[in-house]
UniProtKB/TrEMBL annotation:
Ranges of residues in domain Schlafen AlbA-2: 16-131
Any matching Pfam family: SLFN_AlbA_2
Name by which UniProt lists this protein: ATP-binding protein
Species in which this protein is naturally found: Lactiplantibacillus brownii
Keywords, in A-Z order: ATP-binding, Nucleotide-binding
Superkingdom of the organism of origin: Bacteria
Matches recorded under PANTHER family: GLPR-RELATED TRANSCRIPTIONAL REPRESSOR, SCHLAFEN ALBA-2 DOMAIN-CONTAINING PROTEIN
Keyword hit for ATP-binding: yes
Molecular function GO terms recorded: ATP binding
Length: 486
């Protein structure tokens, strides 16, 4: 994994999160060890030691013995011993004196789990250092075997197998101008360094390196492809009734596969007309929000179990839904209940490369964005169906409601009154039409620049002129709602 080299400005300004934390030089060493353990068990990371309340306090205030304890923390407080890269950054401390901040960096562990002297295992989730439960630890142990696959050497792959355009972009991404490509690939986890029987150092590409940079990854890793299939109707049929109308097989470096998959899917999407509750006008909207379906594809490519070589990523498009199939179950501590806010990289080297190249959102934001984007377009929440062998994301397009132009339909139902309605009233009708009903607070949230009394007056007027009807079990029922009069 490529841990960024933070300069002095970054140390104070970058947010703490999945791979970065700031601590005072006087921070408890056992707790510091737990943070490093959490980083190593997740995606790797860096602790900037000597910063207190976003001010440089430095490390010179520590006694020599305390400084030495920090230098020995990887062997004295972590099991098994972990290698910690320590970079000293000169700073001017809050007293105006020359000082240092120590950057303690650990790489992600491939095939081992780190613990403290009490045999407690920690994992970095967002900006928190989380102590794992017994069940989470078991899941983590299982997932380490899958994660290790990313770092395995692919003996048959050589530099001549790499895609020239993709390598050029990768060099440009990191500003690499050297002649020896191994000097770029090795620190990023895309190659390994080994000694032959004559004690000569040689390099070999890893699975991550092949997936990201090879012209033909499937020559070495069967199943490292995406298949896009468009069906006519709402189910897949076989034999004489087969209803596949489009099928595309996508192979190549991961970034090129993502680009082609994005273009292939976008070409098949339809547009609908929907009411914009902010403007009160009808606008053309896509069948699915791009942020949602693209995030689903990127997540599948980034987090799939590549050791499942007999299966591939599949994007299945039906009339009423989009399904994205990713081989391998959910990684480690991630469950269908916490997937919206919990992150763990099954393939940290791939995840870092795709993050740096702009495909992956900031760690932990992606799945939450799918929910937000679907909700923005009045679509159902995404559905995750998970088993031990795959993760399946389902996005529903609500085609029954959106399959005709809303403007013409609503005007035909309401007649000349439609043009007489104000912004709040049009928004109320639109929400009632999209969802089947509208509640006062739902309408208030949609037109958030208006007062609650204006919202109530709008709903009252719509019932008075016979467009909406109020449904309630009692005059002051808290569960009352409004719906279009049929």
């Amino acid at each position: 994994m490529n841990i960024p080299k933070y300069d002095k400005k970054d140390l104070l300004s970058i947010p703490e999160g999945k791979t970065f934390d700031r601590k005072s030089a006087k921070y408890d060493l056992n707790k510091l060890a737990n943070i490093l353990i959490a980083f190593a068990n997740a995606d790797g990371g860096t602790v900037a030691l000597g910063i207190n309340n976003k001010r440089y306090e430095g490390v010179n205030l520590l006694a020599p013995q305390k400084q030495n304890d920090i230098l020995q923390i990887g062997s004295q407080r972590i099991v098994p011993t972990i290698k910690i890269e320590i970079t000293r950054k000169p700073v001017v401390n809050i007293q105006g004196l020359t000082d240092e901040v120590w950057l303690l960096t650990v790489q992600p562990a491939d095939d081992k789990i780190y613990a403290n002297k009490k045999d407690e295992v920690y994992l970095r989730i967002g900006d928190e250092t989380h102590r794992t439960t017994y069940e989470e630890r078991k899941n983590l142990e299982f997932d380490k075997g899958i994660r290790a696959f990313e770092s395995q050497i692919v003996n048959e792959a050589i530099l001549d197998d790499l895609d020239e355009d993709t390598v050029a972009e990768y060099k440009k991404l990191y500003g690499f101008e050297g002649d020896n490509l191994w000097d770029l690939l090795f620190p990023k986890g895309l190659a390994k360094r080994i000694r032959d029987k004559n004690d000569h150092i040689i390099y070999r590409l890893t699975v991550a390196g092949v997936l990201l940079l090879s012209k033909y990854p499937t020559a070495f890793i069967p199943g490292a492809r995406i298949r896009f299939i468009r069906y006519e109707g709402r189910e897949a049929k076989t034999g004489a009734d087969m209803n596949i109308v489009k099928q595309i097989r996508i192979e190549g470096p991961l970034t090129k596969m993502l680009q082609q998959a994005s273009e292939s899917l976008e070409a098949q999407l339809r547009t609908f007309s929907s009411l914009d509750t902010k403007s009160g006008k009808f606008i053309d909207v896509p069948e699915y929000p791009k942020g949602a379906w693209l995030e689903g594809i990127v997540n599948a490519v980034t987090h799939r179990g590549y050791n499942y070589t007999g299966d591939d990523i599949r994007i299945l498009m039906f009339d009423d839904r989009l399904e994205i199939h990713s081989p391998g179950g959910l990684p480690a501590v991630v469950t269908t209940e916490n997937i919206r806010h919990t992150h763990y990289s099954r393939n940290p080297y791939i995840a870092r490369a795709l993050t740096d190249s702009g495909w992956v959102r900031e760690f932990g934001e992606g799945v939450d964005r799918i929910y937000i984007d679907m909700n923005k377009y009045f679509l159902d929440d995404p559905v995750y169906r998970v088993d031990s062998n795959s993760v399946n994301l389902i996005l529903k397009n609500n085609i029954i409601v959106r399959s005709f132009r809303k403007n013409d339909d609503l005007e035909s139902k309401i007649g000349a009154d439609w043009q007489k309605l104000n912004f709040i009233e049009k928004a109320a009708v639109g929400l009632a039409y999209e969802h089947g009903s509208v509640r006062t607070r739902e309408l208030s949230a949609a037109v958030d620049n208006y007062s609650m009394s204006s919202v109530r007056n709008g709903l009252k007027h719509l019932t008075t002129i016979g467009i909406l009807e109020r449904v309630a079990s009692a005059p002051t029922s808290p569960n009352q709602y409004y719906r279009l009069i049929k």
